[in-house]
Design brief:
It contains 15 helices and 14 strands. It has 432 residues and is of the alpha/beta class. The chain has a seven-stranded mixed sheet, sandwiched between helices. α11 links the parallel β12 and β13. α3 packs across α4 and α12 crosses α14. The radius of gyration is 24 Å and the shape is elongated.
């Protein structure tokens, strides 16, 4: 292997690249911890494969959770690392080494329909656990071109996820001619030796305990089970009304609709130090839309016209709120991702405080907020979860989606082995 390239890679990346140059498994899977160097290596392997068909005019597939995710995780990094244009046309295609790369969002049950009707000579699947099984099946069917190869990367999910049981667990299986069919490599965070010790320590300390730590840091395929917010601590996170900051700003709220079960409006403020306070909640059953609008408008008199992030299932109620002058918005409702974000906040020192006297329903719920015992989908038990839902709608939407800044630091380079080895700032190489 070119020495400059070897020097630019993590030891595990170099080992995997060297194996691929010799054995060329039909199906490569890189799985495990976050920020461990999986995606960048997988992208390079895919580019090398496409380049082996240079100017053949054939087609290749890239799939991800969505087109936006593909652009963020794959295409933008191809441009940054190798100075290769990846601007998509109206068909979500771009030209690469004289071939056509076609990108597909693959998260929905019917996403596979867009893939029909052509032959592919390769497939890059980014975060395949987030893609629908129908899309995965269809992409396999498209990859019928001679010498077609498949490259997947993913973070872990539950131990019974079909990606693990049907593919990763079959790593090492051979074709009839003795060639590798499926070859999988496992990554942990500590594999990325270019990360600073301070960064690694920080991310380990801020990652929620239990399932999230095992998945994100150790790359383990462990189940979601038991209490959800294991790092919630009553003594640490609950305060008295007299301890509420006097310097609150940036008020916002989360609304969970209800009638037979409780509807909940949770109100938050952020102080000058960045601590988020759940100031109060209104938790009532048997109340109609007019009552809820009236209560919200009363809070506007005290806190100003703050945004209310609402359960998106009731668009009619959101529109009704808006017509009444309430700044109502659909909440981000990715349940698992939202819970993960909230769990991380309980791990961080000074991130969240809950006022005891004015959030009794929330405090009662959170200690019993548990994962449902389901294999197919990771979600909480849908009982006594109204306050926790309002909390997720508010904090996940306002804090993770309204004020997000992602900074990536990469060097320059072109797609050839010599220049690839010249990438600067190798401490952050492989960080995704």
């Amino acid at each position: 292997m070119n020495q400059k390239l070897r020097d630019a890679l993590l030891p595990k990346q170099a080992e995997i690249l060297e194996y691929n140059l010799v054995h060329k498994p039909r199906h490569v899977i890189l799985e495990g911890a976050i920020r461990s160097g999986k995606t960048v290596l997988n992208t390079f392997l895919f580019l090398e494969h496409v380049n082996s068909f240079k100017n053949k005019g054939v087609k290749f597939i890239v799939t991800g959770n969505s087109i936006a995710a593909i652009k963020r995780n794959v295409l933008d990094e191809i441009t940054r690392l190798f100075d290769i244009p990846t601007n998509l046309n109206q068909k979500n295609e771009f030209n690469l080494f004289g071939n056509t790369i076609i990108c597909f969002g693959a998260d929905k049950a019917d996403s596979f329909k867009a893939m029909k009707g052509f032959t592919s000579y390769g497939w890059l699947g980014n975060e395949v656990t987030e893609q629908h099984i129908n899309s995965i099946d269809q992409a396999f069917k498209r990859c019928s071109g001679k010498r077609a190869r498949i490259f997947w990367d993913t973070n872990p999910a539950g131990p019974t996820h079909h990606i693990k049981t049907n593919f990763i667990d079959r790593s090492g299986c051979k074709l009839d001619d003795g060639a590798d069919n499926i070859k999988s490599w496992h990554f942990i965070l500590d594999d990325n030796i270019f990360l600073t010790k301070e960064y690694v320590q920080s991310i380990k300390e801020s990652t929620p305990s239990g399932m999230w730590y095992e998945r994100d840091i150790n790359g383990m395929w462990v189940a979601a089970e038991g209490i959800i917010y294991t790092d919630f601590n009553y003594e640490k996170h609950v305060i008295g009304r007299d301890e509420l900051s006097k310097d609150l700003k940036d008020f916002f709220a989360g609304q969970d609709w209800g009638f037979t079960h409780k509807g909940v409006l949770g109100v938050y403020g952020i102080d000058t130090m960045g601590t988020v306070y759940r100031i109060l909640e209104i938790a009532e059953s048997g109340k109609g839309p007019e009552w809820w609008k009236s209560e919200t408008l009363k809070l506007y008199d005290k806190y100003g016209r703050f945004p209310v992030y609402c359960d998106p299932a009731r668009a009619d109620l959101i529109d009704d709120y808006r017509q009444s002058g309430i700044v109502a918005q659909k909440a981000e409702n990715a349940v698992f991702e939202g819970i993960s974000f909230i769990a991380e906040q309980y791990k961080k020192e000074g991130a969240i405080k809950i006022v005891r006297e004015d959030n009794s329903n929330f405090i009662k719920e959170i200690s019993g907020y548990r994962w449902a015992d389901k294999i197919s989908k990771e979600e909480p038990i849908k009982e006594l979860d109204d306050s926790c839902d309002s909390d997720r709608y508010a904090r996940y939407t306002h804090l993770a989606h309204s004020n997000v800044a992602i900074i990536r630091r990469w060097g320059d380079g072109e797609f050839d082995l010599d220049r690839f080895g010249q990438i600067s700032d190798k401490r952050h190489y492989g960080v995704f």
